[in-house]
Amino acid sequence: MSGRDVVLARVRRALQDVPRGEGPKDPPVPRDYLRVHGSRTPAESVNLLAENLVDYRAIVHRSEPGELDMLIMRLLAERGAETVLVPPGLPPSWMAAADPVRIHDRAASTPRELDAVDSVVTGCALAIAETGTLVLDGGHAQGRRRITLVPDHHICVVRVPEQVVDSVPQALERLAPARPLTWISGPSATSDIELGRVEGVHGPRRLEVILLAG
User: Is residue 188 within 8 Å of 203, Cβ to Cβ?
Assistant: First the structure.
């Protein structure tokens, strides 16, 4: 008996009690799980997001709209960034004070070229307070998925409180599943067989999040 035969036999046994003609959407699926853990004000949700981002070793900053360009300039200067990748939809005012060479998001850019970029600045689709997660979907101010996965330094701007949701179920309701979703919980990190933490293997080694007050 082949491996294929074994797998199909197990599938048939698992479906023995399913009535003929029943479709996958016919049985009712209970949705009685918690959509959010506890109740919070918008300000409390933003504070929880900040706490969880820090737990994941992201660096969190807060900014008013009139201060954002100077903050981004300072963060790039502290990093020593000589080049910064800028998505086409990034608001020009965000980079008004920054002086590194601007690298534009181009389809022709190779991974080697992106790896040579010092920093990238983007917005996001939304952020999840309970998990400290940023979600990018390639939309306005975000650019292609790869520009946030290859450069070593990512500055991500989150508009608060409007882009903050409490939970993953709430996030899924606001996201389009057909878009290229990237879920980011802290800087890139993995562990080897001896549980030694290694950062920067499959994403930015340094993640800085700016919570921009609306």
Answer: yes
